[in-house]
Prior knowledge:
Largest interface: A-B, 37 and 37 residues
Distance between the termini of chain A: 26 Å
Order of helices and strands of chain A: EHEEEEEEHEEHHHEEHHEEH
Helix content of chain A: 25-40%
CATH topology of the largest domain in chain A: Jelly Rolls
Number of domains of chain A: 2
CATH class of the largest domain in chain A: Mainly Beta
Number of strands of chain A: 13
Structural class of chain A: alpha+beta
Oligomer: homodimer
Number of helices of chain A: 8
Shape of chain A: globular
Strand order of the largest sheet of chain A: 1-2-9-4-7
Largest sheet of chain A: 5 strands, antiparallel
Amino acid sequence: MIKIDDENLKDKYIKKYNLDNIFSNDMKEYMELILFEKNEFICRENEKIEYIFFFVKGKAKVYIVLQNGKSLLLSFYYPFMVLGDLEIVSLSRASTNVQVLEDSYCIALPFYKVRNILLEDPRYLRFTCNSLSKKLKKSTINGSINLLYPLENRLASYILATSQRTNVGVLKFSGNLMEISELLGTSYRHLLRTLSNLTSKGAIRKRSNYYEVIEIEILKDLASELYK
Amino acid sequence: MIKIDDENLKDKYIKKYNLDNIFSNDMKEYMELILFEKNEFICRENEKIEYIFFFVKGKAKVYIVLQNGKSLLLSFYYPFMVLGDLEIVSLSRASTNVQVLEDSYCIALPFYKVRNILLEDPRYLRFTCNSLSKKLKKSTINGSINLLYPLENRLASYILATSQRTNVGVLKFSGNLMEISELLGTSYRHLLRTLSNLTSKGAIRKRSNYYEVIEIEILKDLASELYK
């Protein structure tokens, strides 16, 4: 996490997402622009959270580690999203792992500077109730995905969310397959079989140490409404 | 849903759960004591919600209907619990079905009378943020239960939550088994096999049209921390 001293870029994001409208008071003086580099964690389960983060650019995956030691994918985060809203009210520790999948920017408010102001601000509190409501609805829907959709659909959604465009325009899907099978709540063998199905369908092609997406529309059709 | 005119009983529940402490203003004049009779719905998916309900006595199951038409159990509600907190802020329709498993009481606040007061009340809004945070954490954990725990554990938890003590002291588990298999995210056949396992273990005994719980401790051990 790197603090970026770029007032113009900070103002751009504040305007783009109307961050001023969230608060009754002017909070600009407390706002910091933060860069998380690819694969960095914004928060980890059970760690103390020091900031409210407004996720304004990039992509992140949200997962928990189950009692049996396996990871489980809960959601993908895209702008605009708030992190730490749950924790600031109850002063609890982070309940999920949020890892960025590409370089990502957040506008951050340090808890210890703003907590007393925000807990008395009905406008901010209404915003937070709304944001928590949305997360709760999303959580209910995503929680049913593992039961409702075959792995092929979940995998298509995962590939779309995590693939990276290279300099030469190739859409590249890589990552630790063992880890991905856990995130998607399946076995390694079933994941391999399903990757091979997607290859037969012409959606992806196996390369040396990654998969190339060759027909993105096939993946989009399969992914439809998942993990929104 | 029946409005009960019993000021003493109403006051008893208000005191028991310190409902006064939730609000900055005195809201007693708006509070109504409501009885939901066994199997009645407090809310149904996509219906408009007219009240915030404080669930003060009884037991309810919370479920959604998936896109494939099957039901999925999300949680059990016991006192103390708030319903409608999500909906009052965003004015959205109910996102789950909440059906009471026994006669249950709620203290209700009519939306249209209290909404303007509550949305300006930081104390109530903080309470709601907290309550939504807890629901969100619970939802995350419960969402992983279907992946993490075998059906036997989930079924034990379900039997404990839904069984009824008869007049002669028998703990009786009944219900539509097809419906129960859907709620638990499994097949009818797998449910029957698992009921038969619990019978072999001496936890339950098959009767004419119900199961009798004969060793509740076996079920408690299996259920442990599920669907909290």
